[in-house]
Amino acid sequence: MMGLGISLVRVLTSSNDYYSGSFIAWLITAALGFLVIVYRLINWHKRASQKWLKAAAKAKKQVWKKLNVPRSGHLWIEDLAYGQKQPSTCCVCLTSLVLPYNGCSASLRSDFVHRCVVCGAAAHFNCSEFAVRDCKCIAQAGSSHVRHHWSERWFNMDENPEMSAFCSYCDEPCGVTFIDASPTWHCLWCQRLIHVKCQAKMSKESGDVCDLGPLRRIILSPLCVKEVDGGNSLSLITEEIIASSVRGQMRRKQRSRGKHGDDHPVNGKLQGATTATRDLDFVLNGFAGLNRSSSDIDFHCLKKNGRIKYTLNGLMHNKGGTAICGQVKKYALADLAQDARPLLVFINSKSGGQLGPILRRTLNMLLNPVQVFELSDSQGPDIGLELFSKVRYFRVLVCGGDGTVAWVLDAIERRNFESPPPVAIIPLGTGNDLSRVLQWGGGFSKFDGQGGLSTLLQDIDQAAVTMLDRWKVNIREENSEGYMEREQSKFMMNYLGIGCDAKLAYEFHITRQENPEKFSSQFVNKLRYAREGARDMMDRACADLPWQVWLEVDGKDIQIPKDCEGLIVLNIGSYMGGVDLWQNDYEHDDDFSLQSMQDKMLEVVSVCGAWHLGKLQVGLSQARRLAQGKAIKIHASSAFPVQIDGEPFIHQPGCLEITHDEQVLYSFSYNALDAHIRGLADGSLLFHGTPNLIVHVFAFLLDDPLTLETPDTAPCHLNF
Q: Phorbol-ester/DAG-type domain: which residues (predicted)?
């Protein structure tokens, strides 16, 4: 870098314009000097932080037995050694995770490490099995209170550090390397920070009792979780554990032992190896379903990038701090506090940007891992809902797209809860239209600049509750003679489309199924949608829709425009990633009512092809409003693509009948409600298409359940 700067200086100073060249050369030299200073400051800060980590680890080792905190072994998964907001220091040997350690050559460096899915600590492959049992214990039923579980601050859990980087006892700054401050611990339950020198004082005054912090209402307290015998037919809680191949670990151990002998580093010191190596000739990928014993686990082989690894769903521990193949543990809930409103979390790791694994690990650290579930083809929402079946009041958080939300709602409906849990959303899908109308945002990136997941969870705790219409779609297919051959039912919350928009969704869906790894970005997914739209502009496959499809609303035939290539039935005011097709805020020359997602009415609009959809996306055009009603029938004399809430399929000749099914509860962002109220106060905002204001006001003023009477409906129990 310095050589390049000198060369640039020589070239510039040789210019005829002496003064101009000298000034530019001076600027470049100053910039290079500034970069060198910044680089040295960053390195100094890293060294100081690592020194503090070692001091905090040493202090914890000295007083760990006196803390008398329930402990558990770590649950390791194989993960990248580097990444944003990831620990960079091994929790065992206290050396760098990304650089060769203990004298190893750079050729032995691995880009993968073991990372605990519960507390977030990380360790080298060679070190993880020698980690001490210092992970937080998720089941402490029988204890009188929760104690602070102090741990080294391997990384900054708070995404808004300037708000809470102070000692919870003395209120002095934590983690400021420019002053002579004490090393810092943080609690794995309440996320508070404390100076090591302040912990003993606080313990004498308060007994080290932890109140679970600002998220206490939605955290499933470990005092309410108990471990039950494997033979009991209670709920089985599973955690996915992905470890590296045992053979690979043996080879790495042999290389390490050949260089360092038979000793292994533990918390910065060497300890003799005491764990016998097990040579397994199989790999595990087990799913422990509800009411299944550990003997029922299925075994499968799993290979990826030429490396064999074993996975096992289940919480498992050995006598050390390492997750191994063993007995699957079962948990049950009991004795919840009266004001507790625990949050049940479902994560679809395949939705949208495929951020599920990172999101799950972070939520495990902020909440109790027992309340966090990952959805997959083999595990649906039922296992989590079964665990919470005896919890009277709780909330649900769905991390995924609109299809994932519908999946969870179907499972909730089958349970027939006395007080159905309201659902909040972390949008991970492509369009996220339902999340938009409920003010949870159109993508996960929204939360990066607003305090991160900690702030989001506080918003969920304070969220209001609103109603949303849910519609039943009866799909009838007919033969050439007009007789019904097959009938099935689906449910709709957002919209239903037939024609050009459904064709785009169907082609996108097929492409994603063939190459799912290419759809890891929401932005790229939208570009692929645009590409499919460009293709449709050329072939116009749905140009004959007005002659093949006829529309019936509340028993009346509705004329379809001749230039129509698609019909869209709307329940909410967001389509295709935020497009408002009904446009309540504009003046129209028709007599239709304002759109609302809780009025038991549907709206029907038409679009004129992929080019029209593109103009709608950028706000250069409007959809044509055709009808509004409570019962809609769409008849088709030929096969057409159809999508229901983004799930596309080919509908054979027949009929689509849409009728009202029920109203479901959703959590509505409290911050958005506050903005609505301010808008109403100054007259700048009308409450069109948004939830009932009275519901919101009661939602955040009352802590007890509320029974709300809505027009033409039975009493609806709301829980807050």
A: 73-135, 147-210
- Alpha-carbon gap, residue 252 to 283, rounded angstroms: 18
Residues 6+ positions from 78 with CB-CB distance below 8 Å: 112, 113, 114, 115, 242, 243, 244, 309
Q: How many percent of the chain have pLDDT more than 70?
A: 64
Q: What is the mean pLDDT of the segment spanning 432-444?
A: 86
Nearest CA-CA partner of 138 in 327, 300, 329: 329
What is the spatial distance between Cα 136 and Cα 595, in angstroms, rounded to a whole number? 49
Report how far residue 604's alpha carbon sits from residue 434's, in angstroms, rounded to the nearest whole number. 18
* Main-chain dihedrals φ then ψ at residue 276, nearest 5 degrees: -75, 140
Tokens of 406: 């519908």
Would you place residue 588 in the very low, low, confident or very high pLDDT band (cuts 50, 70, 90)?
confident
Residue 449 CA to residue 453 CA, distance in Å, equals 10
Closest CA to 56 of 195, 230, 257, 204: 195
Angle between helices 670-682 and 693-701 (to 10 degrees): 120
Which of 306, 399, 303, 357 lies closest to 83 in space, CA to CA?
357
Tokens linked to 382: 């039922």
Q: Considering the entire predicted model, what is its pTM?
A: 0.75
CA–CA dist 532, 541 (Å, integer)? 12
* Among candidate residues 527, 624, 637, the one with its CA nearest the CA of residue 570: 624
CA 110 to chain centre: 28
Q: Using an 8 Å Cβ cutoff, are 385 and 344 in contact? A: yes
Q: State the DSSP code for 16.
A: S
Residue 461's alpha-carbon distances to 154, 214, 230, 704, in angstroms, are: 27, 10, 34, 13
Amino acid identity, position 446: K
AA letter at 675: A
Instruction: Identify which has the larger pLDDT, 344 or 76.
Output: 344
More confident residue, 423 or 614: 423
Q: What is the mean pLDDT of residues 190-206?
A: 88
Q: Looking at per-residue confidence, does 248 or 410 come out higher?
A: 410
Which phi and psi angles does 682 have, rounded to 5°?
-95, 5
Q: Per-residue confidence at 388, pLDDT binned at 50, 70, 90?
A: very high
Residue with tokens 């991160």: 452
User: To which H or E segment does residue 700 belong?
Assistant: helix 693-701
Contact 241, 313 (CB under 8 A): yes
CA distance 714 to 709: 7
Which domains are seen in the chain, by residue range? 471-663 (2.60.200.40)
Burial (0-12, 13-18, 19+ Cβ within 10 Å), 278: exposed
pLDDT tens for 633-660 read 999 999 999 999 888 999 999 999 999 9
CB-based burial label for 213 (10 Å; 0-12, 13-18, 19+)? middle
Is residue 398 within 8 A of residue 426, CB to CB? The reply is yes
Ranked by mean pLDDT, which of 143-147, 353-357, 441-445, 502-506 comes out on top? 143-147
**Taking a C-beta distance cutoff of 8 angstroms, is the pair 563, 624 a contact?**
no
Residue 711, strand partner residues:
none
* Spatial separation of the C-alpha atoms in residues 345 and 400, rounded to whole Å: 11
Secondary structure tally for the chain: helices H, strands E: 16, 34
In a 10 Å sphere around its CB, with 0-12 CB exposed, 13-18 middle and 19+ buried, how is residue 148 labelled?
buried
| Alpha helices, DSSP H, located in 68-92 | none
Dihedral pair phi/psi, residue 449, rounded to 5°? -100, 10
In the chain, what is the straight-line distance between the N-terminal and C-terminal CA atoms, in Å? Answer: 59
Distance CA(435)–CA(402), nearest Å, equals: 8
